[in-house]
Amino acid sequence: MKKSWSGKRLLLVEDSEMLLRALESFFKKAGCQVHSANNGLQALEILEQFSFDLVMSDIQMPLMGGLELLREIRLRNPRTPIVLLSTGESQVEENEVYGAGGVGLLLKPYTLRKLSEVFDSIFSEQQA
Amino acid sequence: MSFSIPRQRPRSYKHNSRRGAFLSHNDKSDLSISTSIELLQSEESFLQILSAIGDLVLVKGPNSKLIWANQAFCDYYGMTAAQLRGILDAPFSEPDHTQQYVSDDAWVFDNKMVLSIPQEPVTRHDGAVRFFNTVKSPIFNAAGDVIMTVGISRDITDQLEAQKISEEQRARATYSSKMATLGEMAGGIAHELNTPLAAILLMAEMIENQNNSLASPDPEIAENAESISVATQRMSTIIKSLKGFSRDATNDERASFPVRELIESTLELCGPKFKNDEVSVQVVQDNLDFMVHGQIVQLSQTLLNLLHNAYDSIRGSANKWIKIETCLASASFEIRVTDSGQRIAKDIAAKIFQPFYTTKGIGEGTGLGLSISAAIVKNHGGELFYDSNKSNTTFVIRLPIPKSQKEAA
Questions:
Q1: Phi-psi region of B209 (alpha: psi -120 to 50; beta: other; left: phi over 0)
Q2: Closest of B62, B58, B63 to residue B73, by C-alpha
Q3: Cβ atoms B186, B241 nearer than 8 A
Q4: CB of A30 within 8 A of CB of A10?
Q5: Do the beta carbons of residue A26 and residue B202 sit within 8 Å?
Q6: What residues of A are in contact with residue B240 (Cβ under 8 Å)?
Q7: What number is the average pLDDT over the span B158-184?
Q8: How confident is the model at residue B393 (pLDDT cuts 50, 70, 90)?
Q9: What is the pLDDT of residues A117-128, one digit of tens each?
Q10: b/e for B110-121, b at 16 or more Cβ within 10 A?
Q11: pTM of this prediction?
């Protein structure tokens, strides 16, 4: 299962262990290098040491949520694409995500097809 | 002979005669008042006072024959005192009402007691029906027999109307706070469930992919994994509709949507429950592409309310069915919900749209469903009504046809 985005370095940020493991497993199989964190603060620590082609983060997390993480990353590295995951309970989220420089918003539960579409579009834009 | 009644209330007054309350006034300089007191002691003055009263005052003899009516009463019936004298009460009223008045009078005669009627309909000369609060008292002769009755009726129509409006407002407030609570809960549930659902969906799809990448994929694994995906997405749809349904949609923008969408999304919420209880739901397929213009969430709340009422009323019976059909007429579009239950009794049907009226047990119904639903449909320029001509229980959401469609037709 080779994807156009195989070999990319990903940071996954999600407080649900179950979902995090499933995502790790999926992206590793797709040939990505995966790092993961359980909240925004952990993610920032990892970002101090490594650089990533894409950060995918949940919005609602303890300690530091996805929107705050997005703003922090924008201050440090304006170009890293960030995709946020939401359970869709708030309608203002979409505006906030794009307003703060996020490049994608996925509503849980999403299908692999949807996930692939978002990733494909991000990486094909980068190549172009 | 005429006199004027002082407009201002006297500073003090007391009963100075067993025959009635006469005004006594300390201010001797006010001649018109002392003159009035003298005049008051004649029969004619009494009549004039009675006629000055805005309430309807009516004196009747045996068998409800009119003896005397004050001016307000004459005006209400559009007749002179002479025309009224001797006739039976209530010349314009429905026979039902008249019968009630006559039996009330008889009660006062027989029981020699005051009868208080909190609310009764009285038909005016122009056909308008207004509501009165009436007190009927017996008038005795020296031997202690009732020889006449005197009734005083106060028009409380406006008061009732104001009460109804404030009750409706209360109903709406109660309902929207209930919906707000439900919305909050639904939001919480959505958040808690969508994350595990995302994990389940992702894993099921990965199993499917892994299986497909084998030299000889196992069709059973493929099928099972597919079933998990479908089930997960269905759960997510239900959470979404619950959330959509319960949020406050009063200020939603209006949009056009096919009536099919309204019916299907509503059945999504209650269909499984009906199925479990073996209530068959039939959607007549005509006109389902008709484009309704309005607030879909609000109209869905209305339809769901009708479906739940139908379900509640038939769930104990043997042959249970609910039918949803639409009907396109020249000026209106109707969504009709019929259930296998018998038509509603007339006296109950008259009350079902009143806020807080319910036939359900304590804790089962708030009595708000139909009144709120009616308000929603009214907001859409239409009406929600009970069709008493049908032998089964039928409720109708009647909506006006959108302008754009009229032009297209």
A1: alpha
A2: B58
A3: no
A4: no
A5: yes
A6: 88
A7: 81
A8: very high
A9: 888 888 876 655
A10: eeeeebeeeebe
A11: 0.54
Q: Do B202 and A89 touch (CB under 8 A)?
A: no
- When computed from its CA atoms, the radius of gyration of chain B, rounded to whole angstroms, is 33
Query: Which residues in chain A touch residue B202, judged by CB atoms under 8 angstroms apart?
Result: 19, 22-23, 26, 109, 112
Q: What's the number of CA atoms in the CB half-sphere (13 Å) around residue B328?
A: 15
pLDDT at residue B37, as a whole number: 62
Tell me the C-alpha distance between B333 and B293, whole Å: 11
- Tell me whether residues A22 and B194 touch, CB distance under 8 A: no
Dist. CA B189–CA B27, nearest whole Å: 77
ipTM rounded to 2 decimals: 0.84
Indicate yes or no: CB of B201 within 8 angstroms of CB of A26.
Answer: no
Mutual angle of helices B219-246 and B157-212, in 10-degree steps: 160
Size of interface A-B (CB pairs under 8 A): 60
Give Cα B202 distance to the centre of its chain. 50
Q: A39-83: per-residue pLDDT in tens?
A: 999 999 999 999 899 999 998 888 998 888 988 888 888 788 899
CB B129 within 8 A of CB B121: yes
Q: Which helix (H) or strand (E) holds B146?
A: strand B146-155
Tell which residue, B101, B91, B109, has the closest CA to residue B132.
B101
CA-wise closest residue to B246 among B178, B341, B337, B336? B178
